[in-house]
Amino acid sequence: MEILKKSKTSDMQRLRAAGFSLANADRLSQNRRGGALILIGAGAVGLLLVGGIAALSLHSSPAEPRITAQNEQPKPVVVASVTPAELPLEKAVSAAILKAEVERKEAAIVATLARTTAASITPTATKIANPEVTVSAEAPDCVAQLGSYLETRFVKFGVGATFITDQSDVTLADIGRKIAGCSDAYVMVSGHSDSTGNDADNITLSWARADKTVERLLAYGVEATSLEAVGFGARAPLSQGSTSDDPINRRVEFRVLRKKDPA
What we know:
Layout: H1 2-17, H2 22-59, H3 89-119, E1 125-127, E2 134-136, H4 142-150, E3 155-156, H5 166-180, E4 185-191, H6 199-219, E5 227-231, E6 251-258
Helix pairs in contact: 1-2, 5-6
């Protein structure tokens, strides 16, 4: 209270010196003291509030220390195994398509390797039942085979005859099949006679025998471009020293040639 009195006296002196009347100075001084008391009261209330908050803070439990990033351990990621049946329809379809594509590519790789391996091997022979016997992969020469076959084949005729007997017809049927099966062969059908009679008649007879033989071969399927008839008369006996009327000379024989490639 002593402090307030001194403050009031100081205020009154300053107000009087400023020209205020005594009554006015007293009223103003009271008003200022009332405001000061309000400020003091407000300050006291503020201090009480701060003290209460501090007390509550002291009684509260301490906060747990924050774990820094260095102390934090990564949590393990758990991946649940999902069977195809548990997948959604869209994912299941995608998985099936992917599996089919992988299988297709694997099959294509296997097929490519098989073709490459087969192409790198050049077979020279083919094994058959007996492992020690092989058959050449190269096709045989039909012209050479036909020549060897016809070398000992003849068609025989009677004296002065051009008639083909039944036995000779069987032989010509087999010869016709052989010639027709070899398109590269060109066969010369040669007619011959014995030496009886004059030379002109023998030439004519030998040509007739060759023509009759060609006609029969054509009937058995041989192409006309594969045959040629020629008559030699008695000029080419089958063997030297035979008698002129030896039946072996009244014959038709065959000479196999190879067709020329067209120019």
